[in-house]
Amino acid sequence: MTLLTPDQLEGLLRHIGAERYHNRHPFHRKLHDGLLTKQQVQAWALNRYYYQAKIPAKDATLLARLPTAELRREWRRRIEDHDGTEPGTGGVARWLVLTDGLGLDRDYVESTDGLLPATRFAVDAYVNFVRDQSILAAIASSLTELFSPTIISERVSGMLRHYDFISEETLAYFTPRLTQAPRDSDFALAYVRENARTPEQQREVLGALEFKCSVLWSMLDALDYAYVEDHIPPGAFVP
């Protein structure tokens, strides 16, 4: 691999998203096209909670390694977005409003007792990746946010249109993400464009985004196998 210009690198990153982002997954299509039962939507929300709850922990591991106050201030906003600044605020709290609205017991959701094993493995692998890899790779792995506004728009409009058990209130998690995700991805993309200065670093950046796409894709693989193909593993949520 020869050294790419920043524009060429960005083009390859966007190509990875177009090819590998989980909006192309069959379970995603079923969810947004109204082809899932309420119980299957419950399983999705329950498992996705673990991802949402671990995002601020993931970001905290990176925050501790960032070398400047400027970078730490920028990344700290992500933790506040998800954890909130007081009880009952932030993205994790809003996700619990969704699981409440779907009729799931909040204590059960927060316990994570009903997770699919693959969900836990995938999310923990992502947290460990951000903790253990270079700062450049860790920041690049967040670039799935470049593509999230599209999936959020599809998710909200599709679920409101197709499911009578979904309301705008229960989907309130997603509204702030329409502005937060572009803000965060703009920063991360600028950082990657500036700091991936060698072919090795550029390969690392591309690999980090591929890894993150695989994390999200594998979570939907597990949901599809367990709750559409009806192979629920022992100990996992049974609708």
UniProtKB/TrEMBL annotation:
Its EC number is 1.3.3.11. Pathway: Cofactor biosynthesis; pyrroloquinoline quinone biosynthesis. The keyword DNA-binding does not apply. Residues 14-221 form the Thiaminase-2/PQQC domain. Keywords: Oxidoreductase, PQQ biosynthesis. It holds the Pfam family TENA_THI-4. InterPro entries: Haem_Oase-like_multi-hlx (IPR016084), PqqC (IPR011845), PqqC-like (IPR039068), Thiaminase-2/PQQC (IPR004305). It catalyses: 6-(2-amino-2-carboxyethyl)-7,8-dioxo-1,2,3,4,7,8-hexahydroquinoline-2,4-dicarboxylate + 3 O2 = pyrroloquinoline quinone + 2 H2O2 + 2 H2O + H(+). The keyword NAD does not apply. Belongs to the PqqC family. Ring cyclization and eight-electron oxidation of 3a-(2-amino-2-carboxyethyl)-4,5-dioxo-4,5,6,7,8,9-hexahydroquinoline-7,9-dicarboxylic-acid to PQQ. This is Pyrroloquinoline-quinone synthase. It comes from Gluconobacter thailandicus NBRC 3257.
